[in-house]
Amino acid sequence: MTTSSVLDQRLTLNNGYPMPRLGLGVWKTSNTDAAHSVSQAIQHGYRMIDTAKQYGNEPGVGAGIQDGLLKAGLNRKDLFVTTKVLNGDQGYDSTLRAFEASLKQLRLHYVDLYLIHWPVDGKFIDTWRALEELYRNGQVHAIGISNFDSERLTELLDKTAITPMINQMEFNPLNQEKDLRQVMQLAGIQLEAWSPLGGGAALSNPTITKLATKYQRSAAQIILRWDYQHGIITIPKSTHVERIVANSQINDFTLSDEDVAAIDALDQGKRGLWYDDFAWHNPTNPKALTGDVQAWDDTAKFLQK
């Protein structure tokens, strides 16, 4: 078993582009905290950062990227950056405009992965065609989707030319999306897990805590190692440097087949969040038209002059 850092490892997407196996997520993180955690993550070996316009922290993430690359002595090409189309920006022309705006906020000339954040009914096909255009033009290196169930994924595959490289889903021991994963596997689509630690419910699950004791690891490390052994890309969120570092220290132990199966058995098919819970997945709802961007008091000081 190799003990090299998981942060050095990549999975090859269906278009041949390599994607890191573990990165940093910044959902529900202010611009100030995002700038700090992103910079620290890069300095501690992370090479993938995941954000979205909806999070309201693209300016902070952009500042953190610049600071982290400078302090780590790296170049832009060393980093894999993901952002996402806001619901209120969906549609062909509006998606292209939104992409340019995100580039400016992030202080970048391209992103590695651009995702449709949620499948807004009646709009996500035109939105995907805009992503295809960005991909063909070389403005993004990979394109994908997020929070697409089997029905909407199948519709997308039937009506568009390019197969998504990624579907980023809520995925953790209590919500394993087994049926959807079968559809994705047949289509050659890589699963990327958001909320991979499942919050308190998964971290405090007796099976997880028992395995943490057995392997002398944290509950988070047990879950992230389980993800790794299933070949799932993960983006755990933390604003604490010690946890950011600890989350990457999962490549010097291996869960036994029996213990992997024990975690597999925890699946409740229970989503903490899903678009049916949000009125704004429906384009006739005002929130779908205006978007739902998190507002932070510190945004202005990170905006590009």
TrEMBL record:
Entry's family note: Belongs to the aldo/keto reductase family.
Superkingdom, taxonomy of origin: Bacteria
UniProt keyword Oxidoreductase, yes or no: yes
Protein name per its UniProtKB record: Oxidoreductase YtbE
Domain NADP-dependent oxidoreductase: 22-267
Gene name per UniProt: ytbE
Matches recorded under SUPFAM superfamilies: NAD(P)-linked oxidoreductase
Keyword annotations of the record: NADP, Oxidoreductase
Pfam family, one: Aldo_ket_red
PROSITE patterns assigned: ALDOKETO_REDUCTASE_3
